[in-house]
User: Fold ABC transporter ATP-binding protein from Nocardiopsis alborubida.
Amino acid sequence: MSTDTVANTETVSGTPAGDTPVLEVTDLTVTFGGLNGNPDVRAVRGVSYSVRRGEVLGIVGESGSGKSVSSMAAMGLLPEHARITGSVRLHGEEILGLDDRTMARKRGRVISMVFQDPLSGLTPVYTVGDQLAEAVLIHDPSAPKARARARAVELLELVGIPNAAQRYRSFPHEFSGGMRQRVMIAMAMANNPDVIICDEPTTALDVTIQAQILDLLRTARRETGAAIVMITHDLGVVAGFVDRVLVMYAGRPVETGRVDDIYYRSRMPYTMGLLGAVPRMDLEHQGALVPIKGTPPSLSDLPPGCPFAPRCPLARPECDLAEPELLTIGAQPSGGEIREGAAAAGPGAGREADADAQRVACVRSGEITAQGWTARDIYPVPEIPDSPAAAGDRADRAEMLRVQDLVKHHALTKGAVFKRRVGSVYAVDGIDFDIREGETLALVGESGCGKSSTLMEIMDLARPQRGTISVMGRDVATLGRADRFALRRDMQIVFQDPMSSLDPRMTVFDIIAEPLRTHGRRAEEVTRRVYELIDLVGLNTEHVTRFPAEFSGGQRQRIGIARALALEPRLLVLDEPVSALDVSIQAGVVNLLQELQARLGLSYLFVAHDLSVVRHIADRVAVMYLGRIVEIGDTRSVYSRPSHPYTQALLSAIPIPDPEKERARTHIVLDGDLPSPADPPSGCRFRTRCQKFALLPEADREQCRSVEPQILAVNDGDQAAACHFAER
Assistant:
């Protein structure tokens, strides 16, 4: 199977067909009435933007900033109790307030939407082909059904669904997540709309599938000429995909402009902080990430003045007096004072006719421009010391964990009463790695590659199906119950979702104290240790009597880390510890993990799908594919000279938050999805998607089909890859 190599060397969206906006949103506000006497929630407050044909507008911001609500309002999809004001014009026609029947005629034909979760966006009881045909027929009832079916097959082929005519009859649950999102894009394209709104279309997808979806959206724009509104929190995706950016905070725009202006010449502290918080795969020495303290305000209890002021290092007393206008660069007060009447002018004031002009809602933006400040000049960034435990040669340091030839196969059974085994899921199929004192090993790969199964086998501290697991030099298969209980002190885990891993009925004190009490610590020692840990992870000791629901996501993850550190372990297993967090909160947790490692000499087994975070935090990286490790080595070596074609594709698919670099890169877009671990391909498991396979001579391709490659040293260094032709 071949791959498509896409070079982003031209303008992101090309030249717009005209200067007349296709979609124009003006002073849009959305308010939800408070329930049970609670105050109203002001979800969107004065959002204005326009987008022209063939143009891509990116809307970014943290969770709860109003991105999705504003798009749902534009589509007329909000519930009846939402109070909406302002204007939404489609080709100059006001559509806000149109009745459902009229809006239904426009949705899908003039303006369409791609949702974040394709499984809930598709009807489970109809085939995907019937749903695509319905999207055509609903806007052209007189069209022959055969023509609608032919159009559905054509759309499936256009978005890269293999065997489109056969898959027409498949149901949504028979498709992978990436394939379901392809169907949603096909449905959005079905009637050649003028505007496509994409609400986090790649958030739930692996990075290789994300690259496919972004490529499809480029195809959709090219085929339909549609304007695209891309709503996302991924600043790397925005850098290489959009023409203009609108940054939202607390329900309103705080900065907008051309993508290059926002990324290279941002003048809003919030935007600068967001960009500084993103781990950069392309930087050799990024240093500590830029953390933004605190959390976004409640939209039912906004602070007076600028809503970002409580988190802003540049805030002055006058920032609390009135909310700043969104003004064109150069029109802001240079001395930091708020102009008389600014608050009365409203959030939409100060707009100019030029939609491309950079506009900022900050009274100190002129100062930022004059001083040439960067995010690191504005935000206090912690100094992370080197870890004494990681000093010296790797071979001389103590071994914290060793995994040899680990195998975990799950039985596939059939039958309701008399079950019989009909096959196996090869979740983990013979992997080897070790972790030394003070070291971080990252385990990466697509969903279904075996990362989580590997973690569960390690944390189980029991005899594996095959192979050995040694912790601190002790084979866990030989341990008795008492020894296994004692060993758990030295190895703890931090889970991906802190809300589901923390008992909602326990206070923070009891959550952290529980492992101490379980291991028989005295009450006074428990109290002292809990307060010590709360302080260590940067939380307020006055909050120990609160419950998990009273904390933000980042704070809950810090509680989970404090609990994991309670027994002074030497090895932490981190299962996607920052994937559920906004980028500004993620930066603080990543910095904390690095600080704790340096101070306490910890070793980490870090499981992640975000390879930018891995580049920032890991010393070594192991890449998994269908239950096998296909490449392992020093992080710097693997990222600078990846040897396995799968590693090359993974790294190629990661977007870089730098518009010029991202547009100039060549992306390897893999075909298809990860094969089933119940039926892996013969020989090299990656050959069905490998970009090198089709270019090899037939004799070499036969070797790939029939002989499974062993992992061997490459590049004359601390790096190994399982590919017959890794160095070719």
About this structure: The radius of gyration is 27 Å. The longest strand covers residues 420-436. The chain is about 30% helix and 20% strand. The first helix runs from residue 67 to 75.
